[in-house]
Amino acid sequence: MNPEMTMDLGSLHAGVGHEQDLMSGHSPHHNRNPGASLRIHQELSVAPSRSAMVSGMASILDGGGGGGGGGGGEYRPELSLPLHHAMSMSCDTSPPGMSGTYTTLTPLQPLPPISTVSDKFHHAHHHHHHHHQRLSGNVSGSFTLMRDDRTLPAMNSLYSPYHKEMSGMGQSLSPLGNGLGSMHPAPQTLHNYSHDKMLSSGFDTHAAMLSRGDPHLPRALGGPGAGMMPHLNGMHAHPGHPPSHGSVLTSNRDRPLSSSSSSGAPGSASGQLEEINTKEVAQRITAELKRYSIPQAIFAQRVLCRSQGTLSDLLRNPKPWSKLKSGRETFRRMWKWLQEPEFQRMSALRLAVNCGGFVHPLLSAAFGSSSSSRSSSLYSAAAQRSVFVYTAGTPV
DNA sequence: TGCGAGTCAATACC
DNA sequence: GGTATTGACTCGCA
């Protein structure tokens, strides 16, 4: 809640190399954004209530004016709504971990090429201060969303027991009973294993989840009626707090939350410290997309800066984290998105991401957006639909 | 140079 | 309309 604290968190979480990875990554697009980075420290608590958030989200989705026609609908700092780092997610390199407590909004991130570098930057914790600098490089500037530090624990919960070893076995689901796990029961062995890990890491995923009361998945998976409440939970219980989605991430080894490197942000360490349960993330993403009737193409483009086909493949055939290289970044983004409050998610979807600083052809074609391509009718429709679902609580 | 990973884009399918 | 599949391409690495 404390802005300053957030900053600290940002340093801890976001500061970690993830962004740096991307930013400093080999991507030619990196560092192209001279635009000043705008850091907004906003407490999610600002959102008075879910309804408020929803309405706000709707506004965002509307694109600041009916789909915010090309560029018009862009996300604007002026919006009272908390900027979601979804933007950052979209093609953003921001550390996954930061999503929990702090958000770096990086609109229009250059990037399509998600660098694999992130993993190499686990030591980037020393560069957290650089973090912002790099962010400044974003085309539209970066935004830092302050969040309740409570997210730390939450994030922890996101870590799943997914273990490297699992790669050989195939991915295991997180121990989350209520999570996707319900869909795919995790093997006991894995479960235990993960549990051990968590213990070692000092986290109890289950407990964390329980504490969070992540009804989210159950409902989502449960089908209609599941409603949006899950999100509410996240938000309700913890205003501005991203709904946790169970342990998608697994703390690898002893993940010092406090350690700068770990930054408590999954993926912040760039896979060095945390592992994302790709299977579970895929399942959750799939569930969320269905739940909100979000087309894969939209999500892939807006959030991941990837093609529909790529997303489809990843969702259907997620590779074990241990086997991923540069592809980890894509999962990190998905994970980050999952951690976002719904309104932020929607915002992310609504925001046209200029992957690499240019409008992706697909977006242009699909959304008929101009170079700025912010809001496309299609996108607006999707966004609005999402909002509708949100508010109505009825699956579209 | 060859290989694997990751992704795209076209296309088939539902 | 949305999703799944697949061939081809690019890139990094040994």
UniProtKB/TrEMBL annotation:
Q: Where in the cell is it found?
A: Nucleus
Q: Where is this region: Disordered?
A: 120-139, 214-276
Report biased composition (Low complexity) as residue ranges: 258-271
Q: Provide the Gene Ontology terms for cellular component.
A: nucleus
Compositional bias ranges of the Basic residues kind: 122-134
The CUT domain is annotated at 267-353
Which keywords are on file for this protein?
A: DNA-binding, Homeobox, Nucleus, Transcription, Transcription regulation
GO molecular function annotation: DNA-binding transcription factor activity, RNA polymerase II-specific; RNA polymerase II cis-regulatory region sequence-specific DNA binding
**Top-level taxon:** Eukaryota
For the keyword Membrane, the answer is: no
Family statement drawn from the similarity comment of this UniProt entry: Belongs to the CUT homeobox family.
Q: Could you tell me what this protein is called?
A: CUT domain-containing protein
Full-sequence range covered: 1 to 396 of 661
